[in-house]
Design brief:
This protein is α/β, with parallel strands linked by helices and 158 residues long. The chain has a single domain, classed as Aldolase class I (TIM Barrel, Alpha-Beta Barrel), CATH 3.20.20. It is built from eight helices and six strands; from the N terminus they run E-H-E-H-H-E-H-E-H-E-H-E-H-H.
Length: 158
């Protein structure tokens, strides 16, 4: 099991790292906006450096396939532990396929069910991020969704 901090706050991140449980970090534009006055690229590079080789997911800011690819390529030059967060959309899946062929790691985000997770994995995603809270908010059993997803991914070795 891997535990990923979901923050762009350096104090929070360093505190969680001190617990010895952090295997990586995820971010998104909303999380970055909470860090008033910080420069996006500077903060991402600081997080990448702080995690010293552990995966850091940096989310694209567009839904256009070509623009996602361009952002991903840019982020990927920042450090070897970049994982590009891509939305679970048709355009996102197209981008994941292309990025995977280039060796760029991806994390498909906003997964709500097993089928989406399987499609993302088949497209070449390095990680799939199942949104437990949102699934529960919609009235579904997130634990069941995760259980079924793990079973399928293991069964088909993807």
């Amino acid at each position: 099991m891997e535990f990923f901090a979901d923050t762009a706050n350096m104090e929070e991140l360093k505190e969680m790292i001190s617990w010895g449980v952090v295997d990586g970090c995820t971010t998104n534009p909303k999380i970055i906006l909470r860090e008033k006055g910080c420069n996006f690229e500077t903060r991402m590079k600081e997080i990448l450096s702080t995690l010293n080789g552990k995966p850091v997911s940096i989310e694209v800011t567009t839904n256009d396939t070509q623009e996602m690819i361009e952002e991903a390529r840019k982020y990927n030059t920042w450090r070897g532990n970049v994982v590009v967060k891509i939305p679970m959309t048709e355009n996102g899946l197209k981008a994941v396929k292309i990025l995977g062929a280039e060796g760029i790691k991806t994390n498909v985000t906003a997964i709500m069910n097993k089928n989406q997770a399987v499609m993302a994995a088949k497209a070449g995603a390095t990680y799939v991020s199942i949104f437990w809270g949102r699934i529960e908010d919609m009235g579904y059993d997130a634990q069941q969704v995760v259980r079924e997803t793990v079973e399928v991914l293991e069964e088909f070795q993807i």
